[in-house]
Amino acid sequence: MSLKRLSLGMKMALVASPVLSLIVVGLTSIVFSPKIQLITQISWHFFLLFLVVVTILLTLLNFTFLSYFFVDRPLKELIAIMATAEKRDFLARAPVRSTDIIGQLAQNFNHLLERITILDAFKIETERELISAQEELKYKKTMEENSRLIEKTNLELQDRLKELSLLHEFSQKITSTLEVDELSHILSAFIVKTLEFKEFVFLVLDEQEKNLTVRAAEGFDESSGVYAMSFHPGEGITGRVWKQKKTDYIPDTRMERHYLYYKGEKRQDGSFLSIPLVFKNRVQGVLNFFRPGFNSFSPEEIQFLNTLAVEIGIALVNVKLYSKTRELSVRDELTQLYNRRHFQTVFPLEIKRAQRFGKSLSLLMMDLDHFKKYNDSHGHLEGDECLKEFANLILGNIREVDFFARFGGEEFVLVLPNTPKEDAVKVGEKLRLAVRERPFHKAESQPRGSLSVSMGVSSFPEDGDAMEEIIDAADIALYQAKGAGRDHVLGYCKDDSVKKLA
Fold first, then answer.
1. Is the dihedral of CA 288, 293, 295, 298 positive or negative?
2. Rounded CA gap, 36 and 350, in Å?
3. φ, ψ of residue 267 in degrees (nearest 5)
4. Torsions phi, psi for 359 (to 5 deg)
5. What 3 state SS string does 382-396 have?
6. pLDDT digits over 281-336, tens only?
């Protein structure tokens, strides 16, 4: 029912009350007489009042009934749907039972809910798309970061691979090196040409002098004293690195008071890097680098140079081991003189050189007189000390070009290049007197009251062209010097006679 129907019902109820009253009055006028009217007048008034009340009540009841079914109930249903929609339940719909205002209101509200449902669905979809876009953007950003990281890692790996390749190349070169000078040359070429350093210094530990000696240097004037420089433990940065066995990096030499500028040889400020060459916790040398700019060495570069220093340290140990092994193979363990085997290697070369340049060459063969008696009297330990003292005495009285070796037991040989026999005999006589006058320990027990030596002298080319011939000639002269009373120097003569020349 619409509001129009409700209004019509209400109007009919209102009209019905006076009409009903008129009908009642008319009927009363016709039926009853004047007498009866008078009698029943009062009761009739009450009856009329009753009818009016009943009519009003019926009208009100009709109005209430119509109002509930056609107004209140639809409005309550619409309000309930609105409350449901307020809780974001947009799928609920208001019932449409008429085409009146309330029905149109419900229908319009349902259309509104449909629009809201569509908008809500669109919002949800939009939010999903936004979240998806955000996730995609996040993943894209992560992928870009990963891509940058991968690219950076690839560059680092390429640099590392290049470094490893350089280290492998350098390591192969120096592992085959058995001389310090050759190692210095390879190191200089690698650092200057491959690593492109303008200035560096390579120092090697001199175990006898107990200092670090410069063996290679770049970036200095040829007249610079750096090439002959050495450092003691704790002296300057180099000495400090040697003592502490740790790399020392100075970003600004102006701020380091211990920096010596290579003892004043190069007054220039910049960055200085000093790396110890360590093997088994023992410093074998030091490698120094310099650049004019401040803070000019990167951490990666320092790390690479430290790795390089490890390879150089190992190479230095190998060189020293080889040198020591070679020395042991060519030197006498007791006197540290060259041994007989090395003499037999060197002497033929000296003969060929003398032959090539047309020079004389003499050989002195020496034997300590009555040395067995000295050993028997004082023991072999005293005898060994006497032999070492004798060797040092001879070394202190000959030239650097002369070659002195232990031939065996108490026998020694001395090679004198560019020396004719007569001059060689004079040298032998000088050495004989030096031995005779030396107060060797406990030498007073010897037959002559002191240690003495006998010598035989032979020369190239007059006594032979081959090593064996010259050695045999000197040995014969020595034998005859001993036969002549010992403590003599005799030269060999081809006519089988021995002539004392001095």
1. negative
2. 189
3. -85, 90
4. -110, 160
5. HHHHHHHHHHHHHHC
6. 999 999 999 999 999 999 999 999 999 999 999 999 988 888 777 767 788 889 99
